[in-house]
Amino acid sequence: MKTLRHALLAALLAASSGCSDDSGVDPFAGPLPAQCPATSLEQSMILTRLVLLRQPMPGVSEGFDLDGRVSGADDNLSCRRRDLTSPEGTPGIDNQFSLLVPALDTATSGALDAAIQAAINNGQLMVAVSIEGLDDRLNDPCVSLVFRRVQGRPFVGSDTRIDPGQTFDTLRDEPVSRVTGRMRNGVIEAGPFPLGLPIAVLDARFVIQLQNARVRIRWRADGTFEGLIGGGIEAAQMIATTQTLTIGSDLMGLVRRLILSITDLDPDADGNCRSFSAAVSFEGRSAFVNP
Length: 291
What we know:
Blueprint: H1 2-17, E1 41-52, H2 101-107, H3 112-121, E2 127-134, E3 140-151, E4 166-170, E5 177-184, E6 187-201, E7 204-219, E8 225-234, H4 235-242, H5 249-260, E9 265-267, E10 273-290
Parallel strand pairs: 4-10
Antiparallel strand pairs: 1-2, 1-10, 2-3, 3-4, 3-5, 5-6, 6-7, 7-8, 8-10, 9-10
Helix pairs in contact: 4-5
């Protein structure tokens, strides 16, 4: 009887986990393939909100542990930049750019979030994410995420967000980013991978090239999405981008110094970090994307 009870318990645990096939092999174990098997299921979304993440209190921010380290002010490998802690208490969060977001708020007279939202709603800043290779919308050991710039005339609802169910066209001349990941309990995690993230603020339009980007997407029960994107940004590239903006030379020099003051990734042979960490949050709604 005891053996029978143990066998029944093991069977129940295996069935409830949803992570093993009939062979007893865990499909979530081992490395991800470069490409997931094709399926007939696919879900696309249009990003309806994009927010540069701040620190709600000093030392706290959402984001990712990009370098696998919990760095303090004495860690030379992070150029002595102290890591942050997530709101849930997870240490090692890399998002040094959050230190500069208040300065951007000041520079835009507090209109930073509103300016980005306006660019999304008027069609100047539209990014679609397609989830391919779907077997199940809750637990899937291999899904593909495809990030595309899209165009079209979005219809915006009374909640000031793009309405779901609209169709957009892929911008053919823009790069496409692909990465494989896994979905557990409706949450997809993927990366690292290179990702070009477009930004539009007032009259500034540019693309941030994220190195070793990570993404986390939660597929909500109501069919909407929320998530985080984090990665490293080359300081030299960001400084070069700011030089294309219509700002004075004094402010340009200040921006350069501020960027160099937050570098915490990719140290060179002399111990100088060449990139800084950043993170953004987003929301999305279902959409159709023409390739």
